What does this fold into?
Amino acid sequence: MPGVPIKFFYNGSIAMEYILEFPEKQYLVFLDLNMPVMSGWEFIRAMESLQSKLHIEIHILTSSIDPEDKLKARKFTGVSSFMEKPLDESVLELLLLNTIKKDS
Amino acid sequence: MWIYDVSTLRFLRVNREAIRVYGFTNEEFLSLTLKDIRPEEDVPILMEAIKHIYQRDDDYFKRSFVRHKKKNGTVFPVLIKSNLIPHKELTIEMVTAIDISEQKRSEDLLKQSNRRLKHIQKIAKLGYWRRDVNSDLSDWSEETYRIFGRKPHAFEPTLENVINAFHPEDRYLLTDDLLDHLQPDKFISFEHRIQRADGSIRWVHQEIQLIPDNSGEPLYIEGIIQDITNQKEYESRLEISNKRFAMAMLASDQKIWELDHTRNTILHSMIINEGQEQIVEEPFGKDSSWCNKIHPDDIDWIWESFHEHLCDTGITSGKLEYRIRKSDGSIGFVTDTYYIQRGEHGVPLKTVGCMTDVTVGRKQLERIKDQNKALRDIAWHQSHTIRSPLTRIMALLNLYKSNEGELLSFDRLLTLIDEAVIEIDTEIHKIVKITYTNNQKDERNITDR
It folds into this structure.
């Protein structure tokens, strides 16, 4: 998607530091669960109290097909969807369009 | 005493004693006949006797027991003696009547008493016997014969016969001279088996004593004998049942305990050498051997919980789970279930409990927990670490296909797939290691049992 900057973070902690450094930006987060230092779940919990002050939409993107992970994800209101890898290009496009529509 | 006319049965003369005893005046007596002093139902007996008055032999009618009736209607037994006396044209008889009411009453009481005694002996299966010290022959009561299963007419209780009626293994009891073991007026008791006429074996209890004469010389030996076969069989069954119960307790790893709150003592079983169980009673306190078995970290809260239950009058049962120190030094887990018996105002009287060793169950539970954890780890690995490189391969292939090699060269594709495949292989090795470690633990547990 042209004009949309993409950032990669290798653990939740670095991602959180970046987001808090630039809280005015709008974020569409594709969150992996299995990460070192701060896992995906820890990131979600840490963002829970901050989410209302930020423009952030979190989508879990994981290789996990464990039904328990899916159920757990539903319990967090800050999680918009649970997607299994590999990510299909069309799904990504659809998501971006929805986000743009919401904001315009 | 009186004289009467045999043909009319009318009284001709009576003495003062007859007037006093029967209550009639002299005039009244002389207006009566013999029938008037007999109860109505006995008159036919009198008339039958009168019919044969001349045919009697020497003893007949001279002395007999009859019933007479006083003026006030009282019937009483009398012993009469009579003599026929020829007197001019009349036949008269002189009769002496003796009131034997008291004697008869005593005899009746004695007979009744004997009947009751026999009845009691029969119910209690209690026999009596005696033997003069200089005699070979004993005198047995009916019940003694019954106990030995003999008939009085078919068995003579000589010493030899009595010895033979004893069980062969118990005959030694009679081979010694009893006099050597007896002291005057002092009972000795013993139990032994007898062999009845039909061959059956019975257990009896005997109490015997030596009765001396006035000079203190042994006169006779007497004894009571009781059939205790049923009691012995019951004791035997009880013993077997108790043994079975103790063995079942040992086999089931259960311990029964009983707490007497009125005496503050605890009764419990304790394993002694070679798996033998012994019942122990001791004062109940934190320092009792019972409480010493409890793990030091658990004793305080158990003591507190148990006493809370005791103080709450609404509680009649409870269950506690805690650790114990086993005799081999290892730590075990038990479940202790108990019932509280309460008296007035809910005051605890007794508490009976059953402690079950659940160590094996607990260990199995721990093992299941370990296995569940291992399964969760495996599931996590499958879902995350294995599927992660796999999804990468899937994504790479999708990318290559959709862009026909524009974004990704074939060589680069192969390199990335190769890396992902190595990652998958590494993760599979990790899973195999988890499974193997868990199996090893499991096998050790099985061996422990």
